[in-house]
Amino acid sequence: SLLQERSRMTSSEEFRKFGTAMINYVADYLDNIRDRPVVPQVSPGYLAKMIPTTAPEKAEDWKAVMEDIEKVIMPGVTHWHHPQFHAYFPTANSYPGIVADILSGAIACIGFSWIASPACTELEMVTMDWLGKMLNLPKEFLFESKGHGGGVIQGTASEATLVAVLSARARAVRQYKAEHPDDNLEDGLIMSKLICYGSKQAHSSVERAGLLAGVKMRLLEPDQDFSLTGEI
Fold first, then answer.
1. How far apart are CA 152 and CA 121, in angstroms?
2. From the CB of residue 216, how many other CB atoms can be counted at a distance below 10 Å?
3. pTM for the whole thing?
């Protein structure tokens, strides 16, 4: 029926209405976030009592979904951008970022290779070089160096740490095999002998990355400047 089609939001007309309503909601939320409690006053399991135990078989009208945001979701939200939120760190939230997420969701490409989306791949390369220059990294760390430099954007700091440890592990295994070709050791045996050194002041993701990568971790005391150097 026409009602069902409108409820499923299959037309661009309904999308425009829903999108406008959501942007207005987000703008009001951010404008008045200081009036909300920083930490939710709910108990574990509160959400399951407010929604069905099985996935709905029929779509709800988007207006009903909007009502559920304030009734079901917001009571359990910790507001990371509240001016009185001082735990952890604020996430990368901004009006341009929110709008960019809309465009990203519309394009919805997966840039796992250049041909999968040339613009996605090349924009990542350029912005990674921007970041490298902001950090004053040597040119060898940049894509534009024409060497082995460059990087990829990860979803979280923990992902980035894990990727770094996995990359270091793979390089160490290859290096050992190249230097000891007569040993004929399996990768697993070589990896069991590897040790990853880190600072005791490092983020918890460092030790967690070692556990996930199967690499022994040895955390060292930093110097008086909280730095970890080769001399230590």
1. 9
2. 14
3. 0.76
